[in-house]
Amino acid sequence: PQLIEQGIKLGRDGLFQHLKRHDMLVKPIKNYTKTTNSHHWLRKHPNLLKDKVAERAEEVLVSDITYVKSDEGTHYLSLVTDAYSRKIMGYELSDEMKASDVVKALDMTVKNRTTTGNIIHHSDRGIQYCSAEYQMTLAANGITPSMTDG
Questions:
Q1: Could you tell me whether strands 143-147 and 119-123 are parallel, antiparallel, or unpaired per DSSP bridges?
Q2: pTM for the whole thing?
Q3: CA-to-CA distance for 143 and 45, rounded, in angstroms?
Q4: Candidate CATH numbers 3.30.2000.10, 3.90.1210.10, 2.60.15.10, 3.30.420.10; the one for domain 60-147
Q5: Tens digit of pLDDT for each residue in 26-57?
Q6: Which of 90, 125, 89 is closest to 104 using CA atoms?
Protein backbone atom coordinates (compact mmCIF):
# COMPACT_ATOMS: atom_id res chain seq x y z
CA PRO A 1 0.00 0.00 0.00
CA GLN A 2 2.80 2.47 0.78
CA LEU A 3 4.34 1.93 -2.67
CA ILE A 4 0.96 2.40 -4.36
CA GLU A 5 0.45 5.66 -2.40
CA GLN A 6 3.71 6.92 -3.90
CA GLY A 7 2.71 5.81 -7.41
CA ILE A 8 5.11 2.86 -7.52
CA LYS A 9 3.77 -0.28 -9.14
CA LEU A 10 6.15 -3.20 -8.62
CA GLY A 11 5.45 -6.88 -9.09
CA ARG A 12 7.36 -9.82 -7.66
CA ASP A 13 9.72 -10.17 -10.63
CA GLY A 14 10.44 -6.45 -10.69
CA LEU A 15 11.17 -6.51 -6.96
CA PHE A 16 13.65 -9.37 -7.34
CA GLN A 17 15.34 -7.65 -10.29
CA HIS A 18 15.71 -4.50 -8.19
CA LEU A 19 17.10 -6.44 -5.20
CA LYS A 20 19.53 -8.31 -7.45
CA ARG A 21 20.74 -5.11 -9.15
CA HIS A 22 21.57 -3.65 -5.73
CA ASP A 23 23.07 -6.92 -4.38
CA MET A 24 20.36 -7.16 -1.74
CA LEU A 25 19.25 -10.78 -2.27
CA VAL A 26 19.96 -13.25 0.52
CA LYS A 27 22.32 -15.89 -0.82
CA PRO A 28 21.12 -19.43 -0.01
CA ILE A 29 23.38 -21.69 2.00
CA LYS A 30 24.41 -24.71 -0.02
CA ASN A 31 23.18 -27.87 1.63
CA TYR A 32 24.95 -30.48 -0.47
CA THR A 33 26.08 -33.98 0.36
CA LYS A 34 28.92 -35.24 -1.80
CA THR A 35 28.35 -38.78 -3.06
CA THR A 36 31.24 -39.20 -5.50
CA ASN A 37 34.93 -39.48 -4.74
CA SER A 38 36.67 -39.99 -8.08
CA HIS A 39 40.14 -38.96 -6.90
CA HIS A 40 41.51 -42.39 -6.09
CA TRP A 41 44.08 -44.84 -7.39
CA LEU A 42 41.67 -47.55 -8.54
CA ARG A 43 41.26 -48.33 -12.25
CA LYS A 44 38.77 -46.21 -14.16
CA HIS A 45 37.12 -47.55 -17.31
CA PRO A 46 36.58 -45.70 -20.61
CA ASN A 47 33.25 -44.09 -21.48
CA LEU A 48 31.54 -46.50 -23.88
CA LEU A 49 28.41 -44.35 -24.19
CA LYS A 50 29.90 -41.33 -25.98
CA ASP A 51 28.37 -42.31 -29.32
CA LYS A 52 25.91 -44.97 -28.13
CA VAL A 53 22.20 -44.83 -27.52
CA ALA A 54 20.40 -47.75 -25.90
CA GLU A 55 18.24 -49.51 -28.48
CA ARG A 56 16.72 -52.24 -26.32
CA ALA A 57 15.87 -52.98 -22.71
CA GLU A 58 18.72 -54.10 -20.46
CA GLU A 59 21.38 -53.16 -23.00
CA VAL A 60 22.74 -50.26 -20.93
CA LEU A 61 22.47 -50.07 -17.15
CA VAL A 62 23.24 -46.83 -15.33
CA SER A 63 24.20 -46.72 -11.65
CA ASP A 64 24.26 -43.80 -9.28
CA ILE A 65 24.06 -42.96 -5.60
CA THR A 66 21.87 -40.22 -4.21
CA TYR A 67 21.24 -39.17 -0.66
CA VAL A 68 18.02 -39.05 1.31
CA LYS A 69 17.78 -37.00 4.49
CA SER A 70 15.51 -38.05 7.34
CA ASP A 71 15.14 -37.30 11.04
CA GLU A 72 17.66 -40.09 11.68
CA GLY A 73 20.32 -38.55 9.42
CA THR A 74 21.58 -38.98 5.87
CA HIS A 75 20.96 -42.23 4.01
CA TYR A 76 22.34 -43.30 0.64
CA LEU A 77 20.21 -44.78 -2.11
CA SER A 78 22.11 -46.84 -4.68
CA LEU A 79 20.17 -47.29 -7.91
CA VAL A 80 20.72 -49.29 -11.08
CA THR A 81 18.45 -48.13 -13.89
CA ASP A 82 17.84 -49.51 -17.37
CA ALA A 83 18.77 -46.64 -19.71
CA TYR A 84 16.27 -47.72 -22.37
CA SER A 85 13.11 -48.27 -20.31
CA ARG A 86 14.15 -46.09 -17.31
CA LYS A 87 13.07 -48.97 -15.08
CA ILE A 88 14.83 -49.26 -11.72
CA MET A 89 16.38 -52.72 -11.90
CA GLY A 90 18.03 -52.74 -8.48
CA TYR A 91 18.39 -50.59 -5.38
CA GLU A 92 19.84 -50.53 -1.88
CA LEU A 93 19.22 -47.99 0.88
CA SER A 94 21.95 -47.75 3.51
CA ASP A 95 23.48 -45.43 6.09
CA GLU A 96 26.93 -45.55 4.47
CA MET A 97 28.35 -45.40 0.96
CA LYS A 98 30.14 -48.74 0.89
CA ALA A 99 31.03 -50.85 -2.13
CA SER A 100 29.06 -53.72 -0.62
CA ASP A 101 25.90 -51.59 -0.71
CA VAL A 102 26.19 -50.76 -4.42
CA VAL A 103 26.96 -54.45 -5.05
CA LYS A 104 23.62 -55.33 -3.40
CA ALA A 105 21.83 -53.06 -5.89
CA LEU A 106 23.77 -54.71 -8.74
CA ASP A 107 22.95 -58.21 -7.44
CA MET A 108 19.24 -57.30 -7.38
CA THR A 109 19.59 -56.05 -10.96
CA VAL A 110 21.11 -59.34 -12.12
CA LYS A 111 18.26 -61.27 -10.46
CA ASN A 112 15.65 -58.99 -12.07
CA ARG A 113 16.97 -59.36 -15.62
CA THR A 114 14.51 -60.68 -18.15
CA THR A 115 16.70 -60.58 -21.27
CA THR A 116 20.00 -62.03 -22.35
CA GLY A 117 22.69 -60.35 -24.37
CA ASN A 118 25.58 -58.00 -23.85
CA ILE A 119 25.20 -55.34 -21.20
CA ILE A 120 27.12 -52.13 -20.64
CA HIS A 121 27.13 -50.86 -17.07
CA HIS A 122 27.73 -47.10 -16.89
CA SER A 123 28.56 -45.14 -13.73
CA ASP A 124 30.59 -42.23 -12.51
CA ARG A 125 34.18 -42.83 -11.41
CA GLY A 126 33.27 -43.15 -7.75
CA ILE A 127 35.41 -45.38 -5.58
CA GLN A 128 32.50 -47.78 -4.94
CA TYR A 129 32.14 -48.52 -8.67
CA CYS A 130 35.90 -48.87 -9.18
CA SER A 131 36.29 -51.22 -6.20
CA ALA A 132 37.47 -54.78 -6.75
CA GLU A 133 34.24 -56.10 -5.22
CA TYR A 134 32.04 -54.22 -7.70
CA GLN A 135 34.25 -54.92 -10.71
CA MET A 136 34.38 -58.64 -9.87
CA THR A 137 30.57 -58.73 -9.67
CA LEU A 138 30.33 -57.09 -13.10
CA ALA A 139 32.85 -59.54 -14.57
CA ALA A 140 31.19 -62.58 -12.97
CA ASN A 141 27.94 -61.60 -14.70
CA GLY A 142 29.48 -60.78 -18.08
CA ILE A 143 28.74 -57.07 -17.77
CA THR A 144 31.08 -54.55 -19.46
CA PRO A 145 31.99 -51.49 -17.32
CA SER A 146 31.82 -47.94 -18.67
CA MET A 147 32.48 -44.73 -16.74
CA THR A 148 32.03 -41.03 -17.23
CA ASP A 149 34.99 -39.08 -18.55
CA GLY A 150 37.36 -37.36 -16.12
A1: parallel
A2: 0.71
A3: 13
A4: 3.30.420.10
A5: 877 666 555 555 555 566 777 888 888 889 99
A6: 90
